[in-house]
Design brief:
Helices cover 38% and strands 25% of the residues. The protein has seven helices and seven strands; from the N terminus they run αααααααβββββββ.
Length: 260
């Protein structure tokens, strides 16, 4: 009984932090949210939970409620009378407790997701190691790897913000034949271990690498999906579209160029 109640108390205490982490590690960074390292998960969710509880503590008084941690901790007491009193108190206020938990967890998720967007928009994750995400493929495919200080010498005239799309050249093994696939990267998917699983290309073409004189052939369809396990090599080119307008503001031409 004590072990089960202790687990419930711990879950309630860290639940807002779990919601915060769900927001901060959403989308392409979700593999960090589902980490199997219990210690890191506990540390990464406990502190956000405590902060959210402290921030919400004055607000609940607006609804004439009080958050009593002693009642919650009473659930793990060795005294049967204290446990009984804690359960009775929780039972009397269960509707308010449920509403409070829904609100604080929703707010936790929204704050985490908002912080993620701010970190990415300001490139804070490429400036401070503590904010760096573990999804290396995100940084490679989006060219944001070039924002790290050790790579700052690579771009002389442009910035990562100048990238309009990523062009892919992939050496792929298909039925014991080797093809070069090329196209515009539309999306990608990670495997459960955080590695790259799929590449999704548009405007794709391919040719046999052994056919040196052959030309690329268009691949019919809107998308083609390449499995990472079939890739032999991968080349990424970051492209900017330079647009030219006339004096009336009409688009004259669009020229694709590699960022430098």
């Amino acid at each position: 009984m004590d072990i089960a109640l202790s687990g419930i108390v711990l879950l309630i205490l860290i639940l807002p932090g779990i919601s915060f982490a769900k927001g901060f590690y959403s989308g392409e960074f979700s593999n960090q949210y589902t980490t199997s390292d219990f210690y890191n998960l506990l540390i990464n969710t406990l502190f956000p939970s405590l902060i959210l509880y402290l921030l919400s503590y004055p607000i609940i008084y607006l609804f004439n409620y009080d958050f009593k941690f002693d009642i919650l901790l009473g659930l793990v007491s060795s005294n049967d009378d204290v446990i009984k009193l804690a359960i009775e108190t929780i039972e009397k206020n269960k509707i308010a407790i449920i509403i409070y938990q829904i609100l604080i967890n929703t707010i936790g998720y929204l704050i985490g997701n908002g912080l993620k967007k701010y970190v990415l928009s300001e490139s804070l994750d490429t400036s401070y190691d503590i904010l760096k995400y573990k999804n290396i493929w995100h940084y490679i495919i989006t060219a944001r790897l070039l924002n790290f200080e050790k790579n700052s010498h690579i771009l002389q005239n442009d910035t990562v913000e100048d990238v309009d799309f990523t062009h892919i050249d992939a050496l792929v093994n298909v039925n014991d034949q080797t093809f070069i696939y090329k196209g515009v990267l539309a999306d990608y998917q990670l495997a459960k271990d955080g590695g790259l699983d799929l590449l999704i290309l548009t405007n794709a073409q391919r040719k046999l690498i052994s056919d040196s004189r052959g030309s690329y052939k268009d691949i019919k369809g809107n998308y083609i999906i390449l499995k990472y396990s079939d890739l032999i090599n991968l080349n990424l080119t970051f492209i900017q579209l330079d647009e030219t307008f006339d004096s009336s503001g009409n688009l004259i031409s669009v020229v694709a160029r590699t960022i430098q």
